[in-house]
Amino acid sequence: MIVKKYKNLQLCFKRQLVEKMTRITIHHYPNEYGGFLLGCYADDFTRLYIKDFLLVDKYTSSSVEFRRELNLKIHNFENIFQETGLYYIGEWHSHPNASAWYSLTDLQAMNDIVSCDTVQLYNPVLLILSISSNKLLDFNFFIFDNGRLVVYE
Question: At 129, which CATH number?
């Protein structure tokens, strides 16, 4: 289990999860690709566990952009929670041949999530995978806090 921190919140995930995402994003190389993050909090809300992810079926992408559409028939987060206990906690996508740092588009997407009345997620997580044609170069987890994306250390 890998642990990263921001303030008093620990983000916990298994390296295998990132490796699985990497294989999927390399398959879509040289275009960006991504999806949704699923997880749960510890009872005392000091740890957030990223347990799984979902892929999207409707999206547009290029080497510098990934825009997903939410298909509720496939991604019914309420049903996922009832069946698994996992919440929608954020987004993930790749940056082919680019840094694992967020763009202004990424920041706006996180702001849109927080502003959405039906989502009710105030601190979404963003994972960005920097990839080449055959490997993971770097990755960063960010948390949206007070209008900013802050990297987990």
Answer: 3.40.140.10
What is the distance between the alpha carbons of residues 102 and 91, in angstroms, rounded to a whole number?
12
Give the residue numbers spanning the domain of 21.
2-151
Q: What is the C-alpha separation between 113 and 65, in angstroms, rounded?
A: 17
With cut-offs at 50, 70 and 90, classify the pLDDT of residue 125. very high
**Neighbour tally for 43: CB within 10 Å:** 7
Q: Report the number of distinct structural domains present in the chain.
A: 1
* CA dihedral of 26, 28, 29, 33, whole degrees rounded to 10: -90
DSSP of 44-108, one letter per residue? TSSEEEEEEEEE-SSEEEETTEEEE---TTT--HHHHHHHH-PEEEEEEEEEETS-SS--HHHHH
From the list 52, 56, 13, the residue with the least C-alpha distance to 32 is 56
Kindly report the pTM of this predicted structure. Answer: 0.94
Q: Could you give the angle at the alpha carbon of 63 between the alpha carbons of 59 and 65, nearest 5°?
A: 45
